[in-house]
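pinging the channel bc i need a second pair of eyes. not urgent but kinda urgent?? the chain im working w is below, pasted from the shared doc
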Amino acid sequence: MKKRIITSMLAVMLTVTLTGCSKENTVKTSSESNKVKIVTSFYGMKALVEEIGKDKVEIHNVVPEGTEPHDFEPKAKDMINIEKGNIFVINGAGMEGWSEKVLKSVNNSNLEVVDASKGIELISAKDHEEEVEEDHDHGEYDPHTWLGIETAKIQGKNIMEALVKADPGNKTYYEENYKTFEGAMNDILNTYKPKFNEVSNKKFITGHATFGYLCRDLGLEQNSIEDVFAEGEPSPKKLEELVKYVKQNNVKVIFTETLVSPEISETLAREVKGKTEKIYTLHSNEDNKTFVEAMKYNVETIYNSLK
């Protein structure tokens, strides 16, 4: 009898031990640690990574949504998050002036740094420059590459290649996601480029000069309230020129952005008895749209304002 009790107790203990091991293995399998840890510089890059990595990646974003990335100053907690990452994705092209200094201080020799703008033919920032103080020199190129169609495709490919390198077991998954993304961007271009070709007035006004690459894709011309680096409110001379530009070019829609005060846009719209309309610059997750959805909205909205 005593022997039988001991045997039963051993069986129970063994069952509990095995159950505990089984539970622990289940937790590990479903853990976020199985995902590739990506750190992105700002929301535009996060939205791009989401298109390619989807549920295989865990993303931490450095610049808070709705914050201007040009002049961002990283904190100690940002350094820690970057050090924990497998991949750090920056837009490049001078967008993140702080990134070089940060990377010199990061203690992670295995961190893969992706300059998403690598391989892009950049537009000179001088094409948009106004009178800018010397201590606000951000670089010689327009850094808003993620807002163009052809340029976003290049950036998506750079991200895809980094993911394949970091996680070769899911190579096909990332490649298929990129093909889907590339196809969606091509659909936007192929649908709207012929439409824009038929429009006689190809000029529009934005809050700041962020759409140079999209203009290059579609043969458009942007004018803006603030320059390419959003240096602040325009001078009285610039305002006078904008009013003249709006009237001469029969501009009826003035586009507004989250990072630029809508006040001047609203004033310009009143001057021509027009209206203001929102456009996405992907500095934050507005209206819960994906990268592709935001791009399609932008192109369609600009087209509707010109036709």
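so The domain at 191-306 is CATH 3.40.50.1980 (Rossmann fold). and The chain has two domains: 33-188, 191-306. — does that match what u expected or am i reading it wrong
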